[in-house]
Amino acid sequence: MTGQDAGPDPPPLLDWRHSSHWSWTPKPCRYCGKDTQLRDSKRKPAHKSCAEDALAQQAADAADAYDNEGHLG
Questions:
Q1: Residue 48, CA distances (Å) to 4, 7, 17, 71 in order
Q2: How far is CA 39 from CA 4, 13, 16, 27, 52, in A?
Q3: How far from 18 is each of 23, 41, 47, CA to CA, in Å?
Q4: Are the C-beta atoms of residues 47 and 62 closer than 8 Å to each other?
Q5: Residue 10: is its pLDDT beyond 70?
Q6: One-character DSSP codes across 8-57
Q7: Nearest to residue 29, comparing CAs of 43, 18, 45?
């Protein structure tokens, strides 16, 4: 142990192995705009990495809002 706090565990990665996350028709990713054949759980075009980045940002924003409302410390 180095004595440093490693912080919280990273969020789990999305599991998009099911065929429902694939389409033969490329469409622009809802986050970056580049074409993708992947679809999120609501069948909207999205790269897996873009969706994971968006979820991480949402979690960080929620934690900041919680902290700014005086709930932490």
A1: 31, 24, 11, 32
A2: 39, 15, 9, 9, 13
A3: 11, 10, 14
A4: no
A5: no
A6: SPPPPPP---SGGGEEEEEEE-TTT--EEEEB-TTS-B--HHHHHHHHHH
A7: 45
pTM: 0.69
Separation between Cα atoms, residue 73 and residue 68, nearest integer Å: 10
pLDDT confidence of residue 15? 87
In one-letter notation, the amino acid at residue 21 is: H
Cβ–Cβ contacts within 10 Å for residue 48, how many?
Answer: 15
Q: What is the pLDDT of residues 16-36, one digit of tens each?
A: 889 999 999 999 999 999 999
